[in-house]
Amino acid sequence: MDEKVRRSLIDAAMAAPYLGRDEELELATRWKGDGDQDAMHRMAMAHMRLVISMAGKFRHYGLPLSDLVQEGHVGLLEAASRFEPERDVRFSTYATWWIRAAMQDYVLRNWSIVRGGTSSAQKALFFNLRRLRARLAQGGEQLSSEAIYREISTRIGVSARDVALMDSRLAAPDTSLDAPISDADSGSAGRMDFLVSEDPLPDEIAGKRIDEERRATWLASALRVLNERERRIIAERRLQDDGMTLEALGSSLGISKERVRQIESRALDKLREVLSRRHPALIG
Predict the structure, then answer these.
(1) I want to staple 230 with a disulfide (CB 3.0 to 4.6 A). Which of 190, 212, 251, 267 is the partner?
(2) What residues contact 12, with CB distance under 8 A and at least 6 apart?
(3) What is the pLDDT of residue 263?
């Protein structure tokens, strides 16, 4: 919304007449009952003052007032579409919640590139932290930051750690990881250069994958020295995430669990012998 359009909207809002209770009820009834768009437009314009007033309360988040007004107008129209005149509630009282919700959602989406305030408690923390901290600081006693965080966490219902994290986010704007450490030297190292990752290096990942594929090939080749029953026992007992028990496998094969253990032991000895002969480094 450019400045000319914003100014025009504000002027139109200020010029719109206030609505009495009876006139408001009539317009709401025409809109809800007959779908009268003109009635809805008049009701919305008469309450744009409320939108502009509420937008001013969110200006300290550094977002354009025109965008806040525009988002608040969306909330106002949403309130108008949902308003039920038969409940005998003034439209301004009902619309206030929708206008505030629309503006708060806009602030949360645009104040930082890192999304925050995803739960109702986190939203309450985001929009009330500064006010509560200022009130506690003005209280007579000198409280440490930890004590302030604990008090705020109790009032809002979040952990003290969440309060501390939100306080640090509100204390400074977003900073690019590519920005240089020194403002005086644009060619200096960036913040990204000082981030340490504990993940393995690409060549380590590739080497591990190659080793795993090679070992799988060697094992598949070694399994060919086993007979059919030995291969089944090794596969069911050793090559599955949840290997079968000796008893369950013995029942499936029609033999005792002790016999399964003996066959398994013999098969493992065969595999070790073949692998040690073909690939000494693997066994060693």
Answers:
(1) 267
(2) 45, 48
(3) 92
